[in-house]
Amino acid sequence: MFSLLPVLMLAQAMPEPPPPQPQEIVRPQRVEPLPGQLDQVPVFNSNSPELVGSEGILLSTFPPEGMANPEAHLNFGFEGRFDVFAHHVFRAPNEDDLRSLYLGIVLYNPGDRPVTVNVLQAASYLSQPDAPFISLPDWVENADGSVYAGPGSRVTNDLLRGQRQETFPPQIEIPPGEFQLLMNLPIPVADLDPPLNGRSTLMRLSSNGTVYAASLALYAPVNASGQERAPTLAEWQTLLEQGALSTPRDRTPTPPEQTSGQIIYGRVAGVSQGSSWQTQLTDPDSLYLTIPLSEPISFGLSTLLAGRLGTEQTQSAPMLVRYPDTAYQAHGNYGVQYSIQMLLFNPSSDASGMGSDPIAVCLETPIKEDGLAQAGLRFFEPLPNQVFFRGTVRVRYTDDRNLPQTRYVHLVQRRGQPGEPLVTVQVPRLGTRLVEVDFLYPPDATPPQVLTLSPLGDCL
After folding, report:
1. Domain regions of the chain by residue span
2. Residue 84 DSSP class
């Protein structure tokens, strides 16, 4: 009698075949720079050191006079509209010390009159438990805002909808010559394995007078019963005035004049310029954008040094002030809102004049390159594992009945991934169709991306 046992044993002993290596696919098309530019709104941009290893100053725009470590203070005042972005990670120094690390953001009024700071929108979330990096499908409807993966995905989702988390008050009054806390929140690690956690914060603010700002890191103090408590304003003020920059520092960035060899972008710590990029895509000297009829056309998003996709356009926000060992530009434009409007025009005609043609609107993550090595964008098949984009995109458009529609879509894209359509609209022949795309560039994403218009009905 024939036995299957040797065959089964041989099958069990044989190793699994390795997964197929990603192969490059070239999609012939044009890639254009994105019209418009960043606005002038300053952004308090605290992202270095990303992994906080000690108590200290993360970013201070206070004047250096009277400070124990004047090199830690960048002397930049905010007035009117400004944003606050802070994104930091904390790992317990050892298994015997599992205290939380608190992040504090302090504001100061240097003037002789009270200052009111309006908190227009704001959100702050932890990786654990608020917004873990869960596995999600590449494309998910997100009408109610309940879909997110990671704290960067969740905070940008909230601000895209104009929300202010209840943690933050609508207004903060700062008397002359006094300090106030804008944020005082922990990064807990005690119940996590490994003891590693992160917090992303994004706020849109408006002040009727000059204020200085600082983000600070302090281990949770312990009360008489051994329980952690939040640091007091006085403790934060002492750290601001007596403390030094938090260490260890991130890798020193490559000078911008170096364009060959390995490029280290660095992490951002300073004041960047630009909170939003609002634009209308049109033909030259026109109100319309003629739809492509044969092959896709793409517009660069968050293009950066060595990743301009042939557009020769760097969208990275410039730094108004920065520490010498941190990024020269805000590469990635974390927290910046892109608002893109298109009045699509179909130049085709037919005898009846009643037809229409489909145009797919997609956000995509092509393989990064500065100049296009071939006449188009490059993608991978199959896709590698690295996720390069997690976030919600809003698309507004008029449908076939000429009624306004709004759709929120959460996207997860890997390196070299073409996009599924945010929407496919039918553009009447010799007619127009309005489409608007909005999203905030999410922390933890990796640029660049593109916005693609495809006449093929999809972008795959």
Report:
1. 24-38+275-454, 49-242
2. E
